[in-house]
Specification:
With about 160 residues, the protein is mainly β. The chain is built from 2 helices and 10 strands; from the N terminus they run E-E-E-E-E-H-E-E-E-E-E-H. The strands form 2 sheets. The protein has a 5-stranded mixed beta sheet with strand order 8-1-2-10-9. A 5-stranded mixed beta sheet has the order 3-6-7-5-4.
């Protein structure tokens, strides 16, 4: 029996881009995704949240997650959508894997982890929140940039100057 030889793409032919694994979730009636490698874990909210003075309206507060303080920001109002109506303890908090800072994003619900084709690379602003739109099971999902999301959320915690 002859040995099979590996098939290589002909020269000049583009290879299919590697699939990206996303955590897919709902917020503000829309579907969003974050790269799985940017997510530390997904947890159930632990209210009541500790209040954060002078923070933006999207800031829900801070919660204790196994002895670690995690700032919690609701995604929907952060991105300009109507807030989700959630009872205490409903929804999910997506804890981002961001160095030593604990940042949780409150969403209406996590739908799962999906492998998708990455969006076409298009010129965009460095601070753009959306990387593009991908199809997941026939539905449009906005792929969020974790660095831009973190920068937007952290800005809410900066003390506002009073006139």
């Amino acid at each position: 029996m002859a040995e099979a030889t590996p098939q290589h793409a002909p020269e000049g032919e583009a290879r299919a881009p590697a699939r990206v694994r996303l955590v897919v979730f709902r917020a503000g009636g829309e579907r969003f995704g974050l790269p799985l490698d940017a997510v530390r874990e997904v947890v159930v909210p632990q209210p009541p949240f500790a209040r954060v003075p002078r923070a933006g309206s999207a800031v829900k507060g801070a919660m204790n997650l196994r002895g670690r303080v995690v700032a919690v920001v609701e995604l929907a109002p952060l991105v300009g959508l109507a807030p989700d109506i959630l009872a205490p303890g409903q929804g999910n908090v997506i804890v981002l894997d961001r160095d030593r800072r604990g940042l949780g994003i409150l969403v209406a619900g996590v739908l799962g982890v999906e492998a998708v084709e990455p969006p076409r690379a298009e010129p965009r602003e460095a601070a753009a929140l959306a990387r593009g739109v991908v199809a997941v099971r026939g539905m449009a999902v906005t792929l969020l940039d974790p660095d831009a999301l973190e920068a937007l959320a952290v800005a809410l915690f900066e003390a506002r100057s009073t006139p």
